[in-house]
Structures are given as structure tokens and as C-alpha cells.
Amino acid sequence: PPGPPLSGLSTPGIGAMSSGSSTSSSTSSSSSTTSSNNNNSNSNNNNNGSNNKRTRSNSNEFYPGSFPPMADKQKAMKETAESAYKDLSDDKDDPMMGGMEKPKRAPGMPLTMAPDVEDENKGGTDWIVGYNPSVQTNLHIDLLHNLSHQSVVCCVKFSADGKYLSTGCNRSAQIYDVESGRKVHSFSDDAAKEGDLYIRSVCFSPDGNFLATGAEDKTVKVWDIMQKRILHTFTGHELDIYSLDYSSNGRFIISGSGDKKAKIWDVEKGKCAHTLGNEEVGPKDGVTSVAVSPDGKLVAAGSLDRIVRLWDAQTGYFLERYEGHLDSVYSVAFSPDGRTLASGSLDKTLKLWDLSGSRARSRCRSTFNGHKDFVLSVAFSPDGNWLISGSKDRSVQFWDPRSAVTHVMLQGHKNSVISVAVSPTTGAFATGSGDYRARLWGYSS
Q1: Does residue 261 register a pLDDT over 60?
Q2: Would you give the end-to-end CA distance of the chain in angstroms?
Q3: Which of 146, 139, 157 lies closest to 443, judged by CA?
Q4: What rounded mean pLDDT belongs to the chain?
Q5: Which of 330, 373, 17, 347 is nearest to 200 (CA)?
Q6: What is the distance between the alpha carbons of residues 326 and 197, in angstroms, rounded to a whole number?
Q7: How far apart are CA 218 and CA 236, in angstroms?
Q8: Phi and psi of 57, rounded to 5°?
Q9: Is residue 429 packed enough to be buried (19+ CB in 10 Å), middle (13-18) or exposed (0-12)?
Q10: 7, exposed or middle or buried, with CB in 10 Å at 0-12, 13-18, 19+?
Q11: Which residues have a Cβ under 8 Å from the Cβ of 43 and sit 6 or more positions away?
């Protein structure tokens, strides 16, 4: 996946696979029966890239993907879904868990597919939904818009009012109207040097007037959306910017970088207010993800060193570290009530950390197992009823955060799902992928 280098790990990259422009019609969620549309035309998505080992020296490179060709899209997605839902009942104690609660595994989950129904207004059917028959759910997912890009889509983010979606890709950030799917703005820095320059993170200001972007040029830029100009350029990080978040009052931007630091930027003063991280208690490797709590009092950061850390947002004082992941942490997200923190990791799991009461390193509330490859992004629904994850296994899963059981798995991309975001006001969520597409989805229950 794009983002922090995976030292010593040989893995397929996420270069483009050929993708059509067709979108899918709505999906029925009424029954637990298997249905597949056998009339879809075959699609040969050939990719001649090879596996590459990503190291520190070439951390800015994206390697060609090497996923197998999909001679039949529906068959391939169904097989992937079946693999992801195979029985995980062989629960074993893990000595690396440090006495924390044993991970909760979903029960054996035979695949139940929602039928794809042809819709003359939307074209083909290239997505499918799997339901867990072991739990009752009335969750319904529908594809709203397909947003094609010219490169890997590294990030997606909604505005606070839910009306707009921003995406980041190579050399540009875009803003789309959620209702129509129409692109309304595009931002690129003409002064930037030639060559690849991936926008790794985007974030709207709470009032929707500004868009912050973080990129491989080590800078955080704040764009005036209506005037289409750069208002601030924050410099100080020594490596790529991987993640951004705005404080709820709009006064501060938090950034995470490959230089092992997170920074809090004062937007009004145009300077760095705090640098989070030092040799004693700070991350020992790149900061992959940052998040600000809903009340603006806490900053969380996930790191390649497998640890989630917590700081006081006002003072920059280090508060706590949460250990338990067995590989790099790639995403963190606060629950809407601010009482729990979710994390996603290259160990293929999600974890929920309890922030209520006295903080302790062992307060892992639950572990979510089910993805078959790296968990790259996590996000909560605004009501807190769903925890949503995107993975290198190309799936999006909807989890019940109370039971740690997945209810629905969506197969809607031809490559890694790098970023997921949920609208704070409407029943919509977005996905960004290595298949050069972002997609807007609707969900209801």
C-alpha cells in the first residue's frame, strides 16, 4: 500500500490495474441466499508488474501491482469473499498479547451474497456484498458514484457538513459534490518539482472553507478552497507527511510523518505549536496516522513501531502508549463519544482501546479478526454503531464495535482499499483504492 515503507517485507505493490468506468446497481439485502450474475462480460485485467521489496531507500516509490488477472470479476470477488469468511474458530493463545483479553474471533461464516441487479442507468455489476448469516442485520449498501482518477487514490475525507468529499492522488487533490458525484475543485501546486508527488492525506477545516493536504514533499499545505490558492505552507517535517487531522475548533492541524514525529500546527499563527515525539517516549519509527478526539483534548498516533500513543492536545504532554499489535499500526480513529480508540494494523486485525477511566497499557477492549491481509484504514460511523475497515485484501468490512463481529463485507475494488471515510451527517461512506478509483457508497439499516 502507499504510505510508510515496509522494511524487510516483500509484498505486492498497489500499482494500477485496468479498470472500467462502469458502476454497479443497488444491492438487495433481503435474504441469506447466494446469487451471482453470470451474464457479466469477462474482463482481463492484466498486470505485468513484479513483486518488489520496499526499503527505506526507496520509500517514495509505488511498485506495480502483481495481483492475478481477474478473468471473471464476479467469480474472483466471490472466491475472495469466501476465503475471507472461512472458519476462524481455531482460537489460540498468543504469547505476544501480554495478558490482554484474548482476541474475539467471528464464528464460521458461510458466505451469503446479495444479488447484483442490473440497472440501465448505472451500467455493469462489479461489486458484491457478503452477509454474515450468524448474526441478524438489516444493513443495506448501495453504490452511489464511481470517481475515476489518473493514479492511486491515497486518501478520502468528507467535509463536516457531509456535502463534499476530498481525495488525494498523484500531484493533486480533488473535491467532489457528494450528491451529484461531480468534481467541483482540483488543487495542484504548480511550483512543485516534476515527477511523482502523492498527496497522502487530505482534511477539511470544520467550516469547510479550507482544505489541508499532506504530501511526499514533507509539507502541509492549507488551501483556500474558493480562491484556489495556498494560504499556509507548514515546513518542519523531515520526511513524507502520512496523515492529517483538523481540531474541532479549526485552530489546529495535526500531522504525522515518516520522521517519527507528529506536529500540532497553529493555523492562526502559522507556526508549529508542539512537536509530539522524542527519543524517550516518542515513536521509534514513522507516524502513519493521527487523529484528534471529538472534544479536541487528545491526539492519538499510530506508528510503524506497532504502538498507539496518546498526547494532551493543549500542552503536547505525552499521556500513554497502547501495545498489543504484532505489526505496524496504519490507522487510528476515535469513537464519536471519545471513549474508545480504534486502530488497524498490518497484523490484519483491528483493536479497540478503552480510554475511559484510568488509562492503562493493557486496556484493549477487543480485537477484530477477519481480514486476510493488512488493515489499512479504520473509521467509525457518526452514531458509533459501526466500525468500518479497509484492507489490502480489497474488502471493506462493517463491524459491530460492541461484539467485535463483522456483519457485512463489501468487495468493491480491484486493488487494495487504502482509505475509508464516513460522512458525519449523511448515510454515505467513501473508499479510495489502488485501482485508480474512489467510490461513494450509501448505507442504511
Answers
A1: yes
A2: 31
A3: 139
A4: 79
A5: 330
A6: 31
A7: 8
A8: -70, -20
A9: buried
A10: middle
A11: 20, 70, 71, 72, 73
State the residue for C-alpha cell 474488502: 395
Identify the band that residue 48 occupies on the pLDDT scale cut at 50, 70 and 90: very low
Which residue's C-alpha cell is 471513549?
A: 339
Confidence class for position 125, pLDDT limits 50, 70, 90: confident
Distance, CA of 163 to CA of 417 (rounded, Å): 22
CB proximity list for 385: less than 8 A, separation 6 or greater: 400, 401, 445
Contacting residues for 333 by C-beta, under 8 A, at least 6 apart: 291, 341, 342, 343, 378, 379, 380
d(CA 267, CA 250): 8
pLDDT-wise least confident of 99-108, 120-129, 338-347: 99-108
Residue 401 scores a pLDDT above 50 = yes
Give a three-class secondary structure readout of the chain.
CCCCCCCCEEECCCCCCCCCCCCCCCECCCCCCCCCCCCCCCCCCCCCCCCEEECHHHCCCCCCCCCCCCCCHHHHHHHHHHHHCCCCCCCCCCHHHCCCCCCEECCCCCCEECCECCECCCECCCCEEEECCCCCCCCEEEEEEEEECCCCCCEEEECCCCCEEEEEEECEEEEEECCCCCEEEEECCCCCCCCCCEEEEEEECCCCCEEEEEECCCCEEEEECCCCEEEEEECCCCCCEEEEEECCCCCEEEEEECCCCEEEEECCCCEEEEEECCCCCCCCCCEEEEEECCCCCEEEEEECCCCEEEEECCCCCEEEEECCCCCCEEEEEECCCCCEEEEEECCCCEEEEECCCCCCCCCEEEEEECCCCCEEEEEECCCCCCEEEEECCCEEEEEECCCCEEEEEEECCCCCEEEEEECCCCCEEEEEECCCEEEEEEEEC
